[in-house]
Every structure is written in structure tokens, then in C-alpha cells.
Amino acid sequence: MTIRVNGSKREVPDGTTLEELIEVFQLKRKAIVLELNHKVIDRTAYQAARLRENDTVEIVHFVGGG
Fold first, then answer.
1. Tens digit of pLDDT per residue, the chain (66 long)?
2. Is residue 31 part of a domain?
3. How many structural domains compose the chain?
4. Rg from Cα positions in the chain
5. What range defines the domain where residue 51 resides?
6. Would strands 56-61 and 32-36 be described as parallel, antiparallel, or unpaired?
7. In CATH, what number is assigned to the domain containing residue 57?
8. FRET pair for 61, CA 20 to 30 Å: which of 4, 21, 28, 53?
């Protein structure tokens, strides 16, 4: 199925969860926030949040510095 991740079209298997998407992109879970269809998703819900055709995911990375 086709979804959008940070504005780019991506193909993912049907039923992919946000948790699986994190693994595919090899992201550090504590350093990101995921937004699904313009709603911030709580980290505890990543495993249950299944993606659907044409969903939009925004991945926001936290960057430290000073």
C-alpha cells in the first residue's frame, strides 16, 4: 500500500504498524515523535496503530545542542 512519510510516497506492506515503520527506518524511538494524519500519536500506541492506504506520517526528530 502507499503512504506518505514526511511528504514522500512510500510503499509498505498492508497492516504495517507505526512500530514496524520505526524499525524499517532504523529510528531511535526515544528521539522521535510520530504524527499520523495530523495527530500526534502517543508512543504507547505505536504497536497498535496500523497504517492504511494514503495515510500521512510525519516523523519529527529531536536534536540536541547548545
1. 999 999 999 999 999 999 999 999 898 878 899 999 999 999 999 999 999 999 999 999 876 665
2. yes
3. 1
4. 12
5. 2-61
6. antiparallel
7. 3.10.20.30
8. 53
Query: What whole-number distance in Å separates Cα of residue 49 and Cα of residue 20?
Result: 10
Cell readout for 53 is 492506504
Instruction: Report d(CA 48, CA 50) in Å as an integer.
Output: 6
Among positive and negative, which fits the CA dihedral 39, 40, 44, 49? positive
66 found inside a domain: no
> DSSP letters along 5-64, please?
ETTEEEE--TT-BHHHHHHHTT--GGGEEEEETTEEE-GGGTTT-B--TT-EEEEEE---
Q: Record the cell numbers describing residue 21, joined without a space.
A: 515503520
